[in-house]
């Protein structure tokens, strides 16, 4: 991950302080837990908080210099609008609404992606199918799906979920496929040795062995889910009264409530950061990093 | 005075005056006449009123064009720093329905979803509120809002004509409303001219006060060009239709375009009509914070001589 | 104990009949082994010896069911081999054969759970038992990427032995081990075999090891691999039934060295 | 890639036909080229053509059954519109225009992604930066960029390129990062052994070693480039006289020329298939497949 | 030929001084070697012997500059080692050390071009020369994934030797080779050394090989690795200056076997 030329080693000082002459003590020394300070430094979130503050400061400075509040509001205006939106407005409700839709579409998309990638991995037909489908549908903008989704799902949530699935399915499937096909033959043979086939093989061998790529797919899918959700809420039948964060942004944009627009966007960013740093980083720490599959 | 003046129009027949200006190089002509020399006029096409306002605010364009709603919004938000230049046309908005049991506003029920370009914020949504206020009383203006859904015009038309979706109504503008009416099932339930008591402006042009103040000659030349374009359309409908088809590359038959241009309710004029009525209503419902002191408050003085409202 | 001379009345456990193995790459087809014939009887320990690149690993993979012969066939317990299975446990030559997402203990337990249907708790107990046999108890909870090369191979050995397959396929399992550990592993292997004999196909480059572990030694010729000679030993690490000690060593050595042809053009 | 339990081996018949007793002939047999028929069968494009025809047939049947040409035109109407668009209309010009924009944005995005991912790989700061930036900007819809892009680039191509870069940069960077961090320590050490550092190291070691993931990133980026290009052309519109395929779709949509809309979409699909099967598949054949990095 | 007794007036080429090496994983810190001291003189062939997991590979990586000691220091030509470099060519223990996107020839040529700045044409010529030495001329255009384990290791050996480093670090390079090939490789190595002597740190588990190749043998104790004994040999594969043949073998063997403690708990 960092300083790729040398593997991170602990400072010598600690070792020197605990010098012990005999081999018995050496054996004890051979494996001991890290100090709390070292663990803290490993918490990337703390370091990133600093970086994030820097970005926010940059925003504020640029916005103040630009002085076009209707186009690009300052950070404090945005925060005020955010606060306002949370206290008096419906921002949280909107976010909740969007999150529910997003999670639904995301879950369906991820499942389909897994199915497709496993099929592509297991059979030549599946492979051809996946390549055709991805090449065909992946470049299509959501607008292209409007007619069929209207026919199949009508107005409202179901159509938006459909668009979401379209947004997240293909990149996830592509990443899963790369992950699967990149597994070393030895690991695959080990799995086969235990008589694992079909779904058991996929679940026990393919998924963990391709976990870094799966995670990347999930990350990309998450981000594109948001993007598409917001776009979809604008294009698709939002019924009055309902509507998520995308609609919140659109409405405020049309009323030139720019600070509120940015408050909406900031909300998405904050959710994104939380998901990235709490969920995904946590998963990474517990999986690929611990397994030595990410360096 | 600037060397180049940048316009932005949107897609559709209602921006015909700008198309005529572009095709016939009217701005260049009037600028030369005003002694401004070789003024360059460029025209971009944008996708929405919101993009229009962004472009204007960022200084990417000098003249924005679009519906009444985005113009009023930016007028209110900028506290008069942005004002209307002139109107482009008066065009009605129809509420077309395919539900045979709906004959008036009061017949609309939960089964009738009404498509419009954007719920709450579009001029169509405002119009529906006006119709509701008229039918149910001023306080009940938002009674029909829950029936509305956001859809782009072509999608909405396809939806009601296909008869497969729960959308039965469409607050349409030309050419969609006329195309819809060719289908026997479609009837007009609401006509905006009835709601407002007469013809009203549909699209207009607006600009910043800064541009207006710093480029008085250019501004006047542009206004003159606009007037000429409007007059040209009034006199040469077929030629204007040809210009439109040439400029847009549209495959519609010329007869169809000509027919729309010659229709009674469609009229091209720079005179703003009933803009203040929209503004007052929007102010009452809270979607426009400022209240204009009359229509002249919304426009730059050069147009104040017309019989606007 | 099963006969080591292949004269038993029953059929052999493993029959390899005229097996030719090829790799088809994009541009070429490489023949790895050429019409290899041999049998392995239940409880028999067979050693494969041959020069580098002669197709030993490929042959093992064919017996394991990972590769299909282009000619000939592999029969296990009288049935043609169609795919891999836990009845033929394999220790691969590569260091990356441990599942990186499982600890040492989990790697072994997983093999027992999946391959043998042993319940989780019991699998873990047995896993620890076999990990102790390869002297890695202290590393039971370590992930594979924190192990040395030799340690990884020992885990793979423990994993394979724990599942108690009828036929064990081992591809240079002790190559990365020091002399002492190697000897200990050999002892463990033989001890397990004493407890309940299994058939074994063992690839090694060490003639000492071959003599120590094998009932019979199959000598392969260089690329593409063919069976050159089959030598019978006594299977107790002592002299073979026919040869004297020094003579045997000498014979293997000579056989391997004389077939060696120079690959360089 | 397929039949994961056994590695593909040639049929036995061929070998039997050439039986030869002596080891000398065997040596010749040991390595010989594949027959033309076998090579042909390996051309996935042929197999896929069949699958594609199937999909098209499905479209036609569904469209005819549905019988709603305004919503969902039949294949032959679409093909007619496509043909018409190519012969008389400006379809090809539009496509050319879009492709130029796309390639520009794509190239810039890919370059930035490579820079970001290498920085993230090499330094802890770069890593934090990349994680923050991706989490922050990746979920943002293009609409959020409109104000800044207008301020920085004004109307027109530059702004669209900016949106494109935003669309392709993050997924490519994420994929490159996964690729880099998944390289085995041994390969990295080998690179270091030759004294390779910085950009030489990235170019000679990181890029080829992470090639499967880079390719996936390029594929995803390509698709998302299209999606965003079309969406952007609707929002940003066009300068007089120009306009790409997105605008073509928008115009025809407004004229209810549904067949032409689908012709536009079909064009994108066809380009996508060509790129996938000629460009990407060709690259894969020459790289990861030949190198044994994709199985 | 340089002195093999370390009594030369100049400073040693490599000085390893009290080097402690640790791995810091998420939960633990593992000490791989503990205050290891030794020197290597220019032209001296040193052999590292020690039980599996005692830190031989780790030590080699520290000398190569891939790991930093937590205590003590590694000096190469009088300067502290800060990172890897082509002056210390390394053959790793793993089979995945070849660049998979390069053919056998390209792998070797790449090392020459990048590590030594040899122009492309010349690099390819030299590459073919060294590939012939490891008997792989027929596979010069093969990609690594189509090679057997032993073949891969031979390519890595060719690649390392071709760059003619001042110090060669070899981590069980011959472990996957059969007896004959192994002997041939040893011969090639010694022959190259005769042409222009280089210093070498060679990890092996074969005592025969140690005796054959080493001027001195460093015996390491088990986990964490410490220097247990340093034995001087004659460097000609014969007796050491002090020991008699059988005695030496015996001594190494005993030394390794007695320090072995049971890891199991
Ligand atoms: N995946 C593969 N694709 C193509 N050819 C291969 C593949 N694997 C092995 N080969 C070729 O097959 C032959 C036999 O390889 P194999 O791995 O079976 O040898 P081996 O006897 O195990 O050698 P070693 O003792 O070095 O491990 C070699 O010539 C090798 O180049
Ligand atoms: N990447 C790593 N992370 C954590 N611990 C490691 C790592 N690599 C090695 N170790 C530990 O360091 C110790 C020494 O490992 P090393 O690979 O140096 O042993 P070795 O002497 O080369 O053994 P072998 O002969 O088996 O190759 C072992 O206890 C091992 O568990
Ligand atoms: Mg092998
Ligand atoms: Mg080692």
TrEMBL record, chains A, D:
<keyword id="KW-1133">Transmembrane helix</keyword>
<keyword id="KW-0812">Transmembrane</keyword>
<keyword id="KW-1003">Cell membrane</keyword>
<feature type="transmembrane region" description="Helical">
    <location>
        <begin position="262"/>
        <end position="283"/>
    </location>
</feature>
<comment type="similarity">
    <text>Belongs to the binding-protein-dependent transport system permease family.</text>
</comment>
<feature type="transmembrane region" description="Helical">
    <location>
        <begin position="229"/>
        <end position="250"/>
    </location>
</feature>
<dbReference type="InterPro" id="IPR035906">
    <property type="entry name" value="MetI-like_sf"/>
</dbReference>
<dbReference type="Pfam" id="PF00528">
    <property type="entry name" value="BPD_transp_1"/>
</dbReference>
<feature type="transmembrane region" description="Helical">
    <location>
        <begin position="103"/>
        <end position="122"/>
    </location>
</feature>
<protein>
    <submittedName>
        <fullName>ABC transporter, membrane protein</fullName>
    </submittedName>
</protein>
<feature type="transmembrane region" description="Helical">
    <location>
        <begin position="49"/>
        <end position="66"/>
    </location>
</feature>
<feature type="transmembrane region" description="Helical">
    <location>
        <begin position="201"/>
        <end position="222"/>
    </location>
</feature>
<feature type="domain" description="ABC transmembrane type-1">
    <location>
        <begin position="95"/>
        <end position="279"/>
    </location>
</feature>
<keyword id="KW-0472">Membrane</keyword>
<dbReference type="GO" id="GO:0005886">
    <property type="term" value="C:plasma membrane"/>
</dbReference>
<keyword id="KW-0813">Transport</keyword>
<dbReference type="GO" id="GO:0055085">
    <property type="term" value="P:transmembrane transport"/>
</dbReference>
<dbReference type="InterPro" id="IPR000515">
    <property type="entry name" value="MetI-like"/>
</dbReference>
<feature type="transmembrane region" description="Helical">
    <location>
        <begin position="143"/>
        <end position="169"/>
    </location>
</feature>
From TrEMBL, chains C, E:
<dbReference type="InterPro" id="IPR003593">
    <property type="entry name" value="AAA+_ATPase"/>
</dbReference>
<dbReference type="Pfam" id="PF00005">
    <property type="entry name" value="ABC_tran"/>
</dbReference>
<protein>
    <submittedName>
        <fullName>ABC transporter, ATP-binding protein</fullName>
    </submittedName>
</protein>
<feature type="domain" description="ABC transporter">
    <location>
        <begin position="16"/>
        <end position="247"/>
    </location>
</feature>
<dbReference type="InterPro" id="IPR050166">
    <property type="entry name" value="ABC_transporter_ATP-bind"/>
</dbReference>
<keyword id="KW-0067">ATP-binding</keyword>
<keyword id="KW-0547">Nucleotide-binding</keyword>
<dbReference type="InterPro" id="IPR003439">
    <property type="entry name" value="ABC_transporter-like_ATP-bd"/>
</dbReference>
<dbReference type="GO" id="GO:0005524">
    <property type="term" value="F:ATP binding"/>
</dbReference>
<keyword id="KW-0813">Transport</keyword>
<dbReference type="InterPro" id="IPR017871">
    <property type="entry name" value="ABC_transporter-like_CS"/>
</dbReference>
<dbReference type="GO" id="GO:0016887">
    <property type="term" value="F:ATP hydrolysis activity"/>
</dbReference>
<dbReference type="InterPro" id="IPR027417">
    <property type="entry name" value="P-loop_NTPase"/>
</dbReference>
């Amino acid at each position: 991950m960092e300083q790729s030329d040398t593997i991170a080693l602990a400072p010598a000082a600690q070792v020197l302080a605990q010098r012990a002459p005999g081999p018995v003590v050496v054996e004890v020394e051979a494996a001991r837990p890290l100090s709390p300070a070292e663990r803290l430094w490993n918490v990337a979130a703390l370091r990133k908080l600093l970086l994030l503050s820097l970005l926010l400061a940059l925003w504020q400075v640029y916005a103040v210099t630009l002085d076009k509040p209707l186009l690009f509001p300052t950070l404090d205006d945005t925060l005020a609008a955010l606060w306002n939106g949370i206290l008096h407005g419906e921002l949280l409700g909107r976010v909740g609404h969007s999150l529910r839709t997003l999670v639904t579409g995301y879950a369906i998309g991820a499942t389909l992606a897994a199915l497709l990638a496993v099929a592509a991995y297991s059979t030549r037909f599946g492979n051809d199918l996946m390549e055709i489908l991805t090449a065909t549908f992946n470049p299509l903008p959501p607008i292209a799906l409007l007619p069929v989704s209207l026919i199949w799902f009508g107005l409202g949530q179901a159509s938006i979920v459909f668009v979401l699935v379209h947004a997240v399915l293909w990149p996830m499937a592509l990443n899963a496929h790369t992950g699967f096909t990149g597994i070393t033959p030895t690991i695959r043979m080990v799995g086969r040795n235990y008589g694992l086939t079909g779904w058991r093989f996929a679940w026990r061998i393919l998924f963990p062995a391709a976990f870094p790529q799966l995670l990347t797919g999930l990350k990309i899918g998450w981000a594109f889910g948001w993007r598409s959700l917001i776009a979809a809420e604008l294009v698709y039948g939002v019924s009055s009264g309902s509507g998520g964060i995308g609609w919140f942004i659109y409405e405020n944009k049309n009323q030139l409530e720019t600070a509120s627009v940015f408050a909406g966007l900031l909300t998405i960013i904050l959710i994104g950061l939380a998901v990235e740093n709490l969920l995904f980083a946590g998963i990474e720490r517990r999986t690929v990093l611990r397994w030595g599959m990410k360096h | 005075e600037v060397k180049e003046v940048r316009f932005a129009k949107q897609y559709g027949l209602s921006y015909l005056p700008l198309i005529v200006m572009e095709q016939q190089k009217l701005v260049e002509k009037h600028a030369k006449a005003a002694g401004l020399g070789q003024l360059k006029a460029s025209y971009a096409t944008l996708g929405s009123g919101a993009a229009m306002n962004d472009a204007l605010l960022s200084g990417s364009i000098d003249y924005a064009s679009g519906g009444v709603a985005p113009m009023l919004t930016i007028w209110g938000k900028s506290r008069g720093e942005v004002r209307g230049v002139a109107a482009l046309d008066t065009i009605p908005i129809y509420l077309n329905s395919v539900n045979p049991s709906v004959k008036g506003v009061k017949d609309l029920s939960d089964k009738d979803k009404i498509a419009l370009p954007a719920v709450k914020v579009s001029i169509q949504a405002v119009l529906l509120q006006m119709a509701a206020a008229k039918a149910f009383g001023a306080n009940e203006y938002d009674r029909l809002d829950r029936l509305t859904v956001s859809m782009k015009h072509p999608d909405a038309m396809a939806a009601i004509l296909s008869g497969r979706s729960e959308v039965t109504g469409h607050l349409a503008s030309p050419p969609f409303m006329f195309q819809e009416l060719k289908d026997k099932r479609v009837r007009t339930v609401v006509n905006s001219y009835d709601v407002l008591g007469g013809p009203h402006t549909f699209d207009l042009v607006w600009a910043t006060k800064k541009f207006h103040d710093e480029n008085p000659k250019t501004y006047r030349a542009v206004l003159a060009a606009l007037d000429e374009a409007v007059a040209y359309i009034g006199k040469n409908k077929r030629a204007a239709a040809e210009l439109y088809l040439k400029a847009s590359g549209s495959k519609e038959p010329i007869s169809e375009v000509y027919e729309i241009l010659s229709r009674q309710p469609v009229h091209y004029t720079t005179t703003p009509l009933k803009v203040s009525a929209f503004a007052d209503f929007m102010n009452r419902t809270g979607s426009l914070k400022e209240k204009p002191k009359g229509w002249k408050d919304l426009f730059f003085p050069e147009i104040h001589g017309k019989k606007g409202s | 104990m099963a006969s080591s001379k292949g004269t038993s009345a029953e059929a052999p456990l493993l029959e390899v009949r005229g097996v030719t193995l090829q790799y088809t790459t994009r541009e070429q087809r490489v023949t790895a082994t050429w019409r290899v014939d041999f049998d392995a009887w239940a409880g028999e320990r067979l050693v494969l010896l041959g020069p580098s690149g002669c197709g030993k690993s490929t042959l093992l993979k064919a017996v394991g069911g990972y590769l299909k012969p282009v000619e000939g066939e592999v029969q296990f317990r009288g049935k043609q081999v169609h795919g891999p299975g836990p009845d033929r446990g394999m220790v691969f030559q590569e260091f990356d054969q441990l599942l990186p997402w499982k600890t040492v203990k989990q790697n072994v337990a997983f093999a027992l759970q999946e391959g043998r249907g042993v319940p989780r708790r019991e699998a873990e107990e047995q896993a620890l038992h076999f990990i102790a046999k390869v002297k890695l108890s202290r590393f039971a909870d370590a992930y594979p990427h924190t192990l040395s090369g030799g340690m990884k191979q020992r885990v793979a050995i423990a994993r394979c032995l724990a599942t108690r397959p009828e036929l064990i396929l081992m591809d240079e399992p002790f190559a990365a081990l020091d002399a002492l550990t190697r000897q200990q592993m050999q002892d463990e292997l033989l001890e397990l075999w004493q407890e309940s004999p299994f058939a074994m196909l063992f690839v090694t480059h060490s003639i000492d090891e071959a003599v120590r572990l094998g009932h019979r030694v199959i000598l392969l010729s260089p690329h593409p691999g063919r069976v050159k000679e089959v030598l019978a030993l006594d299977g107790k690490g002592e002299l073979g039934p026919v040869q004297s000690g020094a003579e045997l060593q000498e014979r293997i050595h000579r056989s391997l060295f004389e077939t060696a042809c120079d690959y360089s053009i």
